[in-house]
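ok trying again, last paste got cut off:
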Amino acid sequence: MNEHFSKRPSKLIERLKDEAEKLENLDEICQKLCAFVVEGDDGREYDESLCDQQLAETVWSAISEASKFSYDENKLEQSLPRCRLSNAIVNAYKVYKDRLRDQLSTVGWEHARVVDMDWRISNVLETNEGKQSGSIAEIHFDTIATDSCDIEKISFQCDVNQLQDLLWTFKEAQNSLENLSKS
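nice, full thing came through this time. structure:
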């Protein structure tokens, strides 16, 4: 399996492969689900008479991952469990892969952005559990999701050791980003 390819499609396939094995028209279903993604506005709409929602999500999960990483059908086949459902997905992907890539390349998603942060130091005299007194850092982040105007507050507390671990993790992330931008 490729390290970038999500494990979700494989897990979904494993969960549904026995049920999918019973479907005589599995190849046709996968073809129609791919067609829905690339031609959904031409009258070919998904409805649950074609297949249940779980099967549709399984197919869409696999083809969107494959499209995201520009997989060819061979690489997709290597990334999925060996079963009839995977074969049907790969065959449908082979037919629609270029159009799927074009269609899905217009879809974007971003993580929430941190728009503000604040911190303060507090002294803990004694907790309910009888812990010793000491100082803790209270860290507050304000974030905004890309599809929203609402600010979500994320707050946590940590002692000096936890704060050091957090700083180390941030430094590792910074170094990784710098290395990626150099290559």
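cool. The chain has a mean pLDDT of 85. Residues 160-182 form the longest helix (23 residues).
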